[in-house]
Specification:
With 420 residues, the chain is an alpha+beta fold. The chain is 20% helix and 32% strand. It starts with 5 loop residues before the first helix and ends in a 5-residue tail after the last strand.
């Protein structure tokens, strides 16, 4: 046997060292450090804490792996309070650009009181005999710094008093400069004072495409500056399709939510431009909202300011729509599935003087196909302009799909008598 020193013998007889258990890192530890502590650092810290509690010198555990700076998603330190938010969306940009120019319009009107009501409620100040005061509310948008506001005609209809309130709290008395019931649009003027009025830029509604973003801003059910988002669902939706045949306008359809009080507010595109005036919804339906295109609104407002009403051309025709046959389409190179037939011709009217007769089928105005009666109103120019009307004169007026002779007539449009 080899000689052994007392020190080596004591070490040999000592109990073998127990293997240090693998260090573990709890999620609580990582959450506490927001992902900045590595597994090795956490285990070393835990071992050091245990040794210190036992009154022993801290031990070192070698893992044999490099330290890893572990970060978990969502565990980053929160942004300091007051830090600037740099990211934004096109909706936020549109609201910041157009929102200040959207106004609340409060109206008061006198309406006839039911006969029995006069006995139950005495007349109050400012109300005439047999009348009562009724209030309403809508939205509008400021177009110019001199106080021009555009809204719907039904918002200010028969209003005895109009009050305009801006988003900054300023209020003004409004003067209705003109209304057009056919397009359901109105122009209001306020007298600006104090700081300049915010205005909204007008966009081109004729450049819209189905699927484009649409932002509706208004005072829905009395909640000022409500913003909703949707897309353009359809273009050129006729008033007859919407269920209001007394209007003569092709609407923009969108699924942006519009509620009572939104009427007259702007429909805004993703470039922060006003492309429509929110006008109507279908009661009982969801996500079916309709707006007057900005191109139409701009023309109507200019007519109201210049003449007090919209000048419309008059042909002197009463028309109806009928479905055309495939034979008719091929014979006359007419693609639409329906056509317009004149069923009444006003004597000595523009159409009668040009030679249009009862039973004639109207195919096009200045080369634009007529798919509906509404197309006639849309395509007619201002009074006094020459147009070319392409038509078919059937051999039998009772059968417009039968054989007929094509001809083109020229006529000069005349102004429709105001109020008709």
């Amino acid at each position: 046997p080899l000689p052994t020193s007392p020190a080596l013998a004591a070490a040999a007889n000592a109990a073998p060292p127990q293997q240090q258990p693998a260090a573990t890192v709890s999620h609580g530890r990582l959450f506490r450090y927001y992902g900045r502590a590595s597994a090795a650092q956490a285990s070393s810290s835990a071992a050091a804490s245990a040794d210190a509690a036992a009154g022993e010198a801290p031990s070192t555990v070698e893992t044999g792996l490099p330290s890893v700076n572990l970060r978990l998603p969502g565990l980053e330190p929160p942004t300091p309070v007051g830090g600037a938010r740099r990211k934004t969306s096109f909706v936020t940009a549109a609201v910041q650009a157009v929102g200040p120019s959207v106004v609340r319009i409060d109206t008061e009107r006198l309406v006839d009181r039911p006969a029995l009501e006069g006995y139950l409620f005495p007349d109050r100040g400012g109300e005439g005999d047999g009348q009562r005061r009724e209030s309403g509310q809508g939205s509008g948008v400021i177009l110019s710094e001199d106080g021009l506001i555009m809204t719907n005609a039904h918002v200010v209809k028969n209003a005895a008093k109009v009050t305009v309130t801006l988003i900054d709290g300023r209020t003004f008395d409004g003067l209705v400069r003109g209304t057009d019931e056919f397009m359901d649009l109105a122009a209001i003027r306020i007298k600006p004072s104090g700081k300049p009025l915010p205005t909204a830029p007008l966009g081109r509604s004729d450049e819209l495409q189905v699927g484009d973003w649409a932002i509706a801003i208004g005072n829905a059910v009395g909640l000022d500056s409500t913003v909703t988002l949707g897309i353009i669902s359809s273009l050129s939706r006729s008033a007859a399709e919407v269920g209001i045949p007394n209007k003569k306008v092709n609407f923009i359809q969108t699924d942006a939510a519009i509620n009572p009080g939104n009427s007259g507010g702007p429909l805004v595109d993703s470039a922060s431009r006003v492309v429509g005036i929110n006008t109507a919804i279908i009661q009982g339906a969801q996500n079916l909202s309709f707006s007057v295109p900005s191109a139409t609104a701009q023309w109507v407002v200019s007519e109201l300011l210049a003449h007090g009403h919209v000048r419309r051309s008059f042909l002197g025709l009463g028309c109806q729509l009928f479905p055309v046959s495939r034979l008719f389409q091929r014979a006359h190179l007419f693609d639409p599935p329906t056509a317009v037939q004149a069923v009444n011709v006003v004597p000595a009217g523009p159409a009668a003087r040009a030679g249009v007769r009862q039973g004639d089928v109207l195919l096009a105005i200045d080369g634009n196909p007529l798919r509906s009666v509404d197309e006639i109103h849309r395509l007619l120019p201002t009074p006094g302009k020459r147009i070319r009307l392409r038509l078919v004169r059937p051999s039998d007026a009772r059968n417009p799909n039968g054989e007929g002779r094509i001809s083109t007539v020229e006529l000069t449009t005349e102004a429709r008598p105001h109020g008709t």
